[in-house]
Amino acid sequence: MSIRGLKKKQPKTFKVKIITVDAEMEFSCEMKWKGKDLFDLVCRALGLRETWFFGLQYTIKGMCTWLKMDKKVLDQEIPKEDPMSFHFLAKFYPEKVEEELLQEITQHLFFLQVKKQILDEEIYCSPEATVLLASYAVQAKYGDYDPNFHEPGFLAHDELLPKRVLRQYQLTAEMWEEKITAWYAEHRGIARDEAEMNYLKIAQDLEMYGVNYFPIAQNKNHTDLLLGVDAKGIHIYSINNRFSPNKSFEWSAIRNISYSEKELTIKPLDKKAEVFKFFSSQLKVNKLILQLCIGNHDLFMRRRKVDSIEIQQMKAQAREEKARKKMENQRLAREKQLREEAERAKEELERRLFQLEDEARQANEALLRSQEAAELLAEKAQIAEEEAKLLAQNAAEAEQERQRLEIAALKTKEEKRLMEQKMREAELIAVKLVKESDRRAKEAEHLKQDLHEAREAERKAKQKLLDITRLNYPHMIKYPQYSPTDTRDANFDKGSIKLDLKDIDLKRLSFEIERERLDYLEKSRKFEDRLKELKSEIHALKLEEKQSGLYS
């Protein structure tokens, strides 16, 4: 046997892409695998044990269809793509999410799917409820609200509200974020799984939650009704109202559901009740309706029976897990609280340290300022001491100056007294000189008058002498020459001599008078100069006395 024959023959495979609400996965499947084989592989990859809620959905000719578990994958009407695409979604919904969703992964997948259905408006929700649901979604994603970390605008890239709500109210993104954050801040301390469960507990009360709608007709001509299948039963709606059903059939009241071609029949448990028949657009729709009815009915009946060992184990594990998570959350909450308290204490210590450092810095600055002030005061004290010494010296000098000024003032007073006395004497002298000047002027005037009278007498004497001479000696006039031996001539000469002498005396007297007058004028001038000098000295003394008074 060849080595190649010893090798195990590898089975042929094909690729499959599984799309969950928040992720994508690829698997290699064997050609002979049935739908259940692929479904179990996906559930194992996700760690999912509550498999009865989910299924693999694909789209064929615009219609959403679920992969059949008991048929080969390749034998079903699936678009031949490479890889084949399936959506892993919740096919059936629980009646009470808090009691039936045991695993955290199951709860998380339901949360993501229901959230997407609300945002896509497949499930109607009032604006107030959408804001509350959005706050739980934010709590599940971001944890506890922290105003220091979750600053305005942190929800700008999150889709949290249906477009219908955004269009209905003319509010800005900032206003919506403020409303959501107001609720979000109140969810402090809620873990992610608790926030998601609170979200689902609110969503399960919505009218369109978990309902699959199909268009139907009461006859073959037109479609005027909607048939809804959910966890509680089958409901008939008008075409324009998906909230309030016109008629409902609970699973416990249904005896049988069957279809023939496009006709679907619902037989109530009460045989007397009317059988409800309706028509769908396609045979495939009836098959899909029947498939959903069978699955929901099985789950409805299972909920009302004693749980299997597997479910009991899962519930026990879920309770233990919840208890463990609760303790863990409590521990984390305590640790978080302690950490927050420690952080607050640290911040308080840091603040106190910063405050103490600031106080120390201020104290150092105050100390430096005090030292600078002390040095400045020392310098000022030294300057003041020097100024005091200088002032003392100036005071001593001022005292000396005061004494000198007093002495000078005394001297000045004495000099002033002497000057005043001299002035008085000078005034007396001046008065005397004026009187003497007047007297001398009068004497000079008398002398001048006497001189004038003497000259007048002399002129008259000369005239009389001439007259006498002319009468007695007429020939002398004609004959001016005379004999020296003549006695009369001698007498005449004697008279002439006498006249000449008298004339000489008059000239001498005039000369003396003129000399005395010049002496008097010279003395007067000198006396006036001396008087001016005395006035200047008195004026200088007065100025010095004024300055001395101001200085004092």
TrEMBL record:
PANTHER family: MERLIN/MOESIN/EZRIN/RADIXIN. It is a peripheral membrane protein. A 1,2-diacyl-sn-glycero-3-phospho-(1D-myo-inositol) binds at K68, M69, D70, K71, K287. Residues 311-464, 517-544 form a coiled coil. Keywords: Cell membrane, Cell projection, Coiled coil, Cytoplasm, Membrane, Nucleus, Phosphoprotein, Ubl conjugation. The keyword Ubl conjugation applies. This is Merlin. One of its GO terms (molecular function) is actin binding. It is found in: Cell membrane; Cell projection; Cytoplasm; Nucleus. GO terms for cellular component: cell projection; cytoplasm; nucleus; plasma membrane. Residues 14-304 form the FERM domain. InterPro entries: Band_41_domain, ERM, ERM_C_dom, ERM_FERM_C, ERM_helical, Ez/rad/moesin-like, FERM/acyl-CoA-bd_prot_sf, FERM_2. CDD domains: FERM_B-lobe, FERM_C_ERM. The keyword Nucleus applies.
